[in-house]
Amino acid sequence: MPDLIASLLSQPATWMAIAIAAVAGTIRGITGFGAAMVMTPPLALLLGPKVAVPVTLLLETFAAAPMLPAAARQARWPVLVPISAAAIVCVPVGSVLLTGADPTILRRLIAAIVIVFSLMLLSGLRYGGGQRLGTSIGLGALSGTMLGATSIGAPPIILYLLSGPDPVAVSRAGLTLYVVVISATGLVALTVAGAITAPVLAVAALMTPLFVLGVVLGSRLFSRFSDQRFRQFTIGFMLLVSTGVLFA
Questions:
Q1: How do residues 43-88 score in pLDDT, each as one tens digit?
Q2: What's the rounded Cα separation, in Å, for the pair 105 and 144?
Q3: How far, in Å, CA of 152 to CA of 111, rounded?
Q4: CB atoms < 10 A from the CB of 118, how many?
Q5: What distance in Å separates the CA atoms of residue 208 and residue 33, rounded to the nearest whole number?
Q6: What's the predicted TM-score (pTM) here?
Q7: How far is 204 from 119, CA to CA, in rounded Å?
C-alpha cells in the first residue's frame, strides 16, 4: 500500500482529486447533499468511473460523520424511513449496471444526470404532490438504482424533500442521513461485486483529510449563508463541471 500511495502522489490527477474533495466536502457540510454531484463527474474523468464511484461512496459514508448527530435529532423519520428502505432494496440493481457498463458511456451518463437535475433545481422546480408513502417508495427506488450505478442518488430526493412543508434545516438533516444510508448500501453492493480494490482504498485515504475538513467548515458556515443564493451558486458550479465532462 505505501508504494501504491507514493505512486498515486506522483500523479497530477491525484492532487486534482484531493482538491475536488475539499470543495465537495464544504458543499456537503453546508447543504447536506451535493458532494457526489460535485465529485463524481470530474473524478470519473480523472480516474475512471470504476474508481470514482466507490471512492465517492466511501467518502460519503464515513467522512461525513461529524454531521450525523445533529442530523439525527432534526430529521423527520416518518418520511425518511420508507425512502431509505426502497433505495436500499434497489441499490444492487444499479451496482450491476456499474460493473458491466462501458466506462465512457457511464462517465457521460453520470454527467448527463447531474446536468438534468441541476437545471431542474436551478429553475426552481419543486415536486408539487404530497409526501405520500407510494411516492416516497417510488422515488427511493429510483434514487437507489441511480446511486448504485453512478454514486449520484440524491437528486430525486432533494426535489422531493425540498418541496415539503419542513424548514430547510429539517430537509438538510434528512438529506444528510439519507446520503449516508444509501452510500453505505452502495458500498456493500460494490464490495460484493469486487469493486473495492486497493487503488480505490488508497485514493479514498488520500482524499479523506481535506474532505473531512471541508465538511466541518461547511457545517459551521451553514447558518451564515443565504440558502437560496448558495444553492444557486453550487448548482451552477455542478452544471459547469458536468457539461465539461459530458463533452470531454
A1: 988 999 889 989 998 998 887 788 889 899 999 899 899 999 999 9
A2: 20
A3: 10
A4: 22
A5: 17
A6: 0.80
A7: 29
